[in-house]
Sequence to fold (227 residues):
Amino acid sequence: GEEVAQTPKHLVRGEGQKAKLYCAPIKGHSYVFWYQQVLKNEFKFLISFQNENVFDETGMPKERFSAKCLPNSPCSLEIQATKLEDSAVYFCASSQREPTQETQYFGPGTRLLVL
Amino acid sequence: QKEVEQDPGPLSVPEGAIVSLNCTYSNSAFQYFMWYRQYSRKGPELLMYTYSSGNKEDGRFTAQVDKSSKYISLFIRDSQPSDSATYLCAMKLGVGGFKTIFGAGTRLFVKA
Fold:
């Protein structure tokens, strides 16, 4: 498709529960990115993939966060044992690689609320 | 110190005004500079993309990059109420899977 799809739109979890978010990138895009937006505007990079391989995971809190992009499946971001501070909007983006130009297309986000 | 500094505003202007939005950055290795627009409860959409120092124009939007000063700007001419949104500057070290570092975003209100 021509849009990045993210599911679910909203997710509510009790502290300590697991949360799993999904992202279907635009068909043909090689790169997938996950970002966390806390307090409306602070975007934090979490991880990027080139196809199914991790490209950059320097933003991931490794103890509780994990992500995968497997062939023929939506990409996923999983948070084990959620904490209150994980409440945020999680955006997925995808892009193709072009030598001098790049457009990252963002999905609508998944709003996670941890109570 | 944050890698990218952006005044969060809010910035309120009358319709038709010229809007100037700015960001400064600390890492001289950044090569690619973007401006995104984000409407409430939506994902960001790319407005402008620049690689080198200088100006780039697209309709009512002009992006400016000054690598020597580590300063980027976005100008919006003849602003419209529909331009009311949050504007995020962003930058990358390289294309492809390199992470994008975002500014905090500036909230813009254009009054009719």
